Amino acid sequence: MNNQPVILAIDQGTTSTRAILFSATLEILAVQQKELKLHYPHKGWVEQNPEAIWQDTLEVCHAVLEHNVSMVGSVAAIGITNQRETTILWDRKTGKPVYPAIVWQDRRTDIGCEQLKAQGYEPMVTARTGLLFDPYFSATKIAWILDNIEGVRSRAMRGELAFGTVDCYLLWHLTGGKVHATDVTNAARTLLFNIVEQKWDADLLTLFDIPEAILPEVRDNAARFGMTDRVLFGRGIPIGGMAGDQHAALIGQRCFRPGMVKSTYGTGCFALMNIGLDFKPSQHRLLTTPAYRLNGKMVYAIEGSIFIAGAAIQWLRDELEFFQEAAASEALALSVPDSNEVYFVPAFTGLGAPYWRPGVRGMISGLSRDTTRAHIVRAALEAQGYQTRDLMEAIEEDGGHHAETIRVDGGLVANKFMCQFLADMLNKPVEVPRITEATALGAAILAGLTVGLFVDLEATGDYWQRDKIYTPTIAETERERLYAGWKTAVQSLLHASRN
Ligand code: ADP
């Protein structure tokens, strides 16, 4: 086995950092993982320690490579995938961050986004970036650091500082500070990258008052990003692939044809449809984003982002102490025939697509004297189906394609009740692949492509295997009755909230 080439995928997520070793036939050989802390210094602020992100990455890579026999010599390439939008500024000489990483969930720039929206800039920004004004994206986070941390703006203007999302920061460290680059999917989440012209947009840089000197070079998803510093692994290893987590999952799920959809259920839920070679702005406040770019050819996707999915289950476990393990939610949900008219809208950090109401907060409605824990748990799992249906209707209209099936992945798809309800609510088959680590798999595919382990992207489709398929079972009238109840719950929440 030691002579066979392997691919090392780094999956740097919001709550953990993983290193996964894949064979050249895309089987998982080994996994190492480390939990990553989130810090909440003020209400609505979410930060992480960039140095911990880098140290954890190095640690899990060493652990996975040195686990049994050393695999370092066999690694043909490294692929990186990452939590998107999270913003880091660091000193180009020392590598020291000037401020903690501002995490994608951070809402400190809510007001700034509202002001820009009120000034009427949003249509221009959407036409160029495919995005909306929301604190979620990097631009207002970068501007916040430049404006609030003493001396940072002048250092940035002098070219002393580098900005990067987590992929870019890791690449910089992996290459010993030699390469400051990112890929189109990560660049596209900054609000500064024009995804139609495929370059940093001078007008947007002016709008957000961000100096171009801090920006990385933008490359294809499969590209020669650089070699690792020999000090790290004893030899230089090519870094051949890079993509934001949701784009990597789209690749891992082999959604290479227009109309194919993947939906990932982790902390949040992100559904992406491949829409082919033409940029189409959304008519439903979804996002248009690069699916991937290979050999300079961009394929676009429509994306629906829901901020809270599995996090609602975590909340029921940790705050309401309804159960000890997330997996126990399945038996509880199945212990009752229905949710007893309870609806759970898990808008803990505002409502994402297609509503985009950052100021709204969550709600459990329809409580009566005979409501039990089981009903609330069931409603939390059903919410995943309703939220996805909200998205899918909009995605299909925007993308101009009817999705035949939906390929799912992420921690929550271990829950069979959730997957069945999803199929019932979407009225579509829901497919679970044999390897549900779709994100890391996507990074591995990109890296393998660059070093010639695969002929082309399509060739990797041969290795996709389905583990389970859930087909719709409920009657049309029941499906629509349940969904109408969700719509009513969401509308009452939107009306009740001023933001
Ligand atoms: P992330 O990559 O965003 O950290 P994961 O894909 O690892 O998330 O998924 C973890 C999430 O899935 C957690 O929020 C957890 O509550 C939820 N989860 C895991 N297993 C189950 C299960 N069997 N039933 C319901 N939720 C689950």
Automatic annotation (TrEMBL):
Task: List the InterPro entries.
Answer: ATPase_NBD, Carb_kinase_FGGY, Carb_kinase_FGGY_CS, FGGY_C, FGGY_N, Glycerol_kin
What Gene3D superfamilies does its record include?
A: 3.30.420.40
Enzyme Commission code(s) on record: 2.7.1.30
The residues listed in the UniProt record as binding ATP, with positions renumbered to this chain, are T14, T15, S16, T267, G310, Q314, G411
Q: How is its activity regulated?
A: Inhibited by fructose 1,6-bisphosphate (FBP).
Reaction catalyzed:
glycerol + ATP = sn-glycerol 3-phosphate + ADP + H(+)
**Domain called Carbohydrate kinase FGGY C-terminal: residue spans:** 263-449
Question: What keywords are assigned to this protein?
Answer: ATP-binding, Glycerol metabolism, Kinase, Nucleotide-binding, Transferase
Instruction: Spell out where the chain crosses the membrane.
Output: none
| Pathway info | Polyol metabolism; glycerol degradation via glycerol kinase pathway; sn-glycerol 3-phosphate from glycerol: step 1/1
According to the entry, every stretch annotated as the Carbohydrate kinase FGGY N-terminal domain falls at 6-252
Matches recorded under SUPFAM superfamilies: Actin-like ATPase domain (SSF53067)
Q: Name one GO biological process term.
A: glycerol catabolic process
Q: Record's PROSITE patterns?
A: FGGY_KINASES_1, FGGY_KINASES_2
Q: Where is sn-glycerol 3-phosphate annotated to bind? A: T14, R84, E85, Y136, D245
Where does this protein hold glycerol?
R84, E85, Y136, D245, Q246
Q: Which GO terms describe its molecular function?
A: ATP binding; glycerol kinase activity
- Does the entry feature the keyword Nucleotide-binding, yes or no? yes
The keyword Magnesium appears for this protein = no
Which purpose does this protein serve, as stated in its record? Key enzyme in the regulation of glycerol uptake and metabolism. Catalyzes the phosphorylation of glycerol to yield sn-glycerol 3-phosphate.
- Give the similarity note: Belongs to the FGGY kinase family.
What name appears for this protein in its UniProt entry? Glycerol kinase
Q: Which gene encodes it?
A: glpK
